[in-house]
Design the sequence.
């Protein structure tokens, strides 16, 4: 398959395609036209065609898309044909919620370890994974082929930790700490801030109320 330089906007849309196609596949749907996919996903058919054209198309004139094939190809583009071992650092509310989420494994993300500085939490289990002390982190990362660290700790702790993680072979950070991390080239960081999403929601509520004349302010 021919691959061009793909914009982050397109990459950002791929997981949603992947999710819908996975559901269609599970329902036994074998093929789908861009029009049908467009109605299902509420994006224009031309957007879908444009997005897929970045990867050489996938579709056949008059046939539409083969769901299984498209699902697998998008999975490959997203790197989901490989497994990724991850550790969670910070076994508090958020860390535990993430650790308890089973579907990560379905996508090839394997929950290997959990770490915390609080001695009271050491030895507790989250979905069969023991919480370990921070002193064991570096060796664990090296010996267990861990490539992703999930940071669910406060921001000051996150900054201090990042260099150690990188020195021991971490390639990517899924960062929930509210801080921008400075990392060398080649290390991937994905920041997740749930409150950003909530603020977007707030903006859209406010805009809707204004536009529909219901804003009383
Ligand atoms: P929490 O207080 O329940 O858990 C934090 C855990 O991190 C505690 O178990 C604590 O012992 C541990 N910890 C603190 N410093 C550490 C260090 N240096 N090394 C190892 N472990 C350390 O807090 P919660 O609710 O789980 O939130 C965790 C962090 O995530 C907070 O800083 C919060 O601001 C942030 N957060 C981010 C969200 C997002 O959308 N990005 C959403 C919710 C929380």
Sequence:
């Amino acid at each position: 398959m021919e691959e061009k330089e793909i914009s982050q906007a397109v990459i950002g849309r791929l997981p949603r395609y992947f999710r819908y196609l996975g559901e269609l596949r599970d329902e036994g749907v074998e093929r789908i036209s861009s029009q049908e996919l467009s109605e299902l996903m509420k994006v224009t058919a031309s957007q879908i065609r444009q997005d897929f054209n970045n990867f050489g198309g996938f579709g056949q004139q008059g046939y539409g898309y083969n769901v299984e094939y498209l699902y697998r190809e998008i999975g490959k583009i997203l790197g989901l044909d490989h497994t990724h071992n991850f550790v969670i650092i910070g076994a508090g509310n958020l860390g535990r919620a993430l650790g308890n989420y089973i579907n990560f494994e379905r996508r090839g993300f394997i929950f290997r370890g959990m770490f915390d500085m609080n001695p009271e939490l050491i030895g507790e289990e989250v979905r069969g994974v023991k919480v370990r002390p921070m002193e064991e982190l570096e060796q664990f990362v090296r010996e267990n082929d861990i490539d992703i660290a999930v940071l669910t700790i406060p921001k000051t702790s996150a900054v201090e930790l990042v260099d150690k993680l990188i020195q021991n072979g971490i390639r990517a950070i899924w960062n929930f700490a509210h801080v921008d991390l400075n990392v060398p080239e080649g290390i991937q960081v994905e920041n997740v801030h749930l409150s950003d999403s909530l603020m977007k929601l707030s903006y859209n509520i406010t805009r809707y109320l204004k536009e529909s004349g219901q804003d009383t302010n």
